[in-house]
Known about the structure:
Its EC number is 2.7.1.107. Keywords: ATP-binding, Cytoplasm, Kinase, Lipid metabolism, Membrane, Metal-binding, Nucleotide-binding, Repeat, Transferase, Transmembrane, Transmembrane helix, Zinc, Zinc-finger. One of its GO terms (molecular function) is ATP binding. With 575 residues, the protein is α+β, with helices and mostly antiparallel strands. The chain has 15 helices and 26 strands. The strands form seven sheets. The protein has a six-stranded antiparallel β-sheet with strand order 14-13-26-23-16-17. It has a six-stranded antiparallel β-sheet with strand order 22-21-18-15-24-25. Helix 11 packs across helix 12.
Amino acid sequence: MDGERRPALGPPAQSLLADGHLVLWTLCSVLLPVFITFWCSLQRSRRQLHRRDIFRKSKHGWRDTDLFSQPTYCCVCAQHILQGAFCDCCGLRVNEGCLKKADKRFQCKEIMLKSDTRAPDAMPHHWIRGNVPLCSYCVVCKQQCGTKPKLCDYRCIWCQKTVHDECMKNSLKNEKCDFGEFKNLIIPPGYITSINQMRKNKKTDYEVLASKFGKQWTPLIILANSRSGTNMGEGLLGEFKILLNPVQVFDVTKTPPVKALQLCTLLPCHSARVLVCGGDGTVGWVLDAVDEMKIKGQEKYIPQVAVLPLGTGNDLSNTLGWGTGYAGEIPVAQVLRNVMEADGIKLDRWKVQVTNKGYYNLRKPKEFTMNNYFSIGPDALMALNFHAHREKAPSLFSSRILNKAVYLFYGTKDCLVQECKDLNKKVELELDGERVELPNLEGIIVLNIGYWGGGCRLWEGMGDETYPLARHDDGLLEVVGVYGSFHCAQIQVKLANPFRIGQAHTVRLILKCSMMPMQVDGEPWAQGPCTVTITHKTHASMLYFSGEQTDDDISSASDQEDVKEAEYSDEDVQT
């Protein structure tokens, strides 16, 4: 029956076949993107593992970036690249595929010389080609460098000098590097090599070695908190490593200040300076480490401390002239210039001892070190609520503006609830041993510095009432009271003055009943009945920069001048 035709498929069979094709194409359209995505993620993870392996074995400080901030060319293949890797020590920039070649071909910054045959201050230039900084000029012809759309021109990674390709000469390649503008802040690699040799020979006369650099040599140590405030610390670490010797730059989250400051003992006496990049809490951490140096008998190596404010409040930084907050508005090179121009001053540090009532005095009193202020009441309550929520989700509190908005929210809430009312009935206050009668307050603030609450000059106030400027080096504390959260807000916008209680060398506060919020320098806690005693502890050597003057500083200074003029005129009338 070969000639017989097979019967055609009926409608049900055709429908089934069409459904099968539809199912097949649907599966393909769903599974194919899934497969492609899985394959791409697998390749990406392999590349990441490969990069991490190179980063781990490399002497360069490689970091990934998805987009370079300026036109960039690979130092190996000279091709224009949008993403890749860069070294945060020497500034090399390469494509991902050229990473291994660049690691073998180019040498990174040497934190110390391989041989000690050269003098500690003698070192040739270390030139790297391409990707020179914008608005840089050739040291030979004085014309702008980096203007061509290709890999061109050279930069020395130590002195930061730039030179055109056609201006580069053999004499310039072998020329001695003078470390450029920041030579008085840089610890030369030759110095580290000589120090190691002297320690092997059991010699510690570092003054003779340092005399070659002159009396103006004040090496700078960078202590940055990569987690502070706006999370700018990590980027700043790389920028400082490019301008200085990487051995001078530390991340305090990886190397505690106690260990990092031991570098000061390898430098001449009273020559080192420290720049703390972080909030007031990070500054307090560093100053505690400085106090430990005093305990170890290392007073002659104690550095002077400057501040680059990355926190939320930054009241100590503001008091010392370094501003209310750093957001990259000035280049890092200018920050280093400001440190070189800063003057040394003293900062009072106070011991806060909290002794709980009851328990037959078996519990050891809690001790804190205060640099800024101590408070009990609504501002401590706001700090306590803020701190509790930041501990739960720290990633949500990386913006300085958002942090202040959260403070505003809790302040508004306390205006309605008034959790700290009738404080005058719960506490007793003594200034230099004399008891003080308190009005109906909700909070008491004990100040060591001029600023409070993120930039408010609390003691001087505003209006016709003139008070002497609060000082941070006179051994005196200023004590004020507030009537509530709304009163705090009025003070910050200059619509009201605090209730000034007085000045004292010693402050004693007795909490008789109930739990109350307290804080020391922004570190809050809930406290039961206790006795709080504040006494002078020590002085810290700080750096004051007079170039950052706020409107409050100018107005306060003018008020002081008006007061002095009035006093002089009164004396003239009397005479």
